[in-house]
Amino acid sequence: MSYTNGSIGTLRDLCPALANKTYFNYGGQGPLPTPSLEAISLSWQRIQQLGPFTTEVWPFISREVNSTRALLAQLCGVAPHRLALSENVTTGCVLPLWGLPFDPGDRLLISDCEHPGVVAACHELARRQQLQIDTLPVKQIRGGRDHQSETETAVLKALEQSMHPNTRLVVLSHLLWNTGQLMPIEAVAAQLHNESQPPYLLVDAAQSMGQIPVKAAAKAADIYAFTGHKWACGPEGLGGVALSERVLSEASPTLIGWRSLQDESKAVLDDPDPFHHDSRRFEVATSCVPLLAGLRTSLEVLEREGSAQQRLERIQALSGQLWQELMAMPTVTPLLEGAPPAGLVSFSLNGDSATSTPAELVQRLGNKGIWIRDLADPSCLRACTHVCTLASELQNLVEALDQSITETTQSSAPEAARTDRTVPSD
To answer: pTM for this structure?
Structure first.
């Protein structure tokens, strides 16, 4: 145990952000446990004690970097040389993506449920390199947890129908951030491998790390990018990306800095091979070292909640309960037809309840101390259950949601329809 100040407890006990609110936004950002904050602070102090730029500090920094890389690589089931440290999912996706070898006219196949940040990067890459963009339709695949075999069949069929002979990249999230549907990444990778010229597979794992087991998918993908600040409850500004051997051998570095270089102490004008041959070629320059200690501590706290599979089962039990409660409400409809495969529970407003926009409903709930979020495509609301979510919080959400929708409906109804009037007798 490496918690500072002897801080030992459940994840929920250790998160001050959960003490004064009902929180369902783990898919946006998780709360930071107090031991992680303490670990960050102690790391800052140690660096200052050693001297921020002295010969004594470099071994400390090297240990911090290497131990974090090794831990994240272990979680992804890959060798450490295949794990690059990043600041977030977007940089983890974009830096290796922009180094892939494309020819004008090549095609990128992007699912219709990808995050705008990754989509925008792909479109700009296509503009610069004269590539074509195609769409992989998965938004309407909404079977839920008990229909994963049907989901796999539907995704693979859509993939087959959307491919072209010159498709060179497929972009597909592990867990769709809007509908909450789990994608069969290993099966997709296997199908792509059977192509005469196998496309690269880029996986946005923003909703995966810390929530669902990731090893099989991370090993199967060419680019598997994740962050530590969502379900892993680490600090923002630190993530990682697992890279295939093919990417390491075929991709060029993009944003280049001293961390990209085999020898950071000299210029590279006369060096024909200046860059690392492993994942470090996609790391750039100075980053925040104390965040490494914070993320490792958060992952340690999370591990105390059980194995990855045990945590997922707990999350599924909670999301399934919430899904059932929402199914029973006439004013909302869950996006998935069955219980969610993980902790993302998305739902839309029905009929008269739709007189309030999702954003307005989010604010109404926020005024009651309950926090969910709204999404634009498809237009819906999303609540996330994590291992530290309480069953009583689910009930609070459902009751507050019903009350808020009722209040909105009544306030928007015509005056004559919502005001009791006494008709005087003759």
So the answer is: 0.93
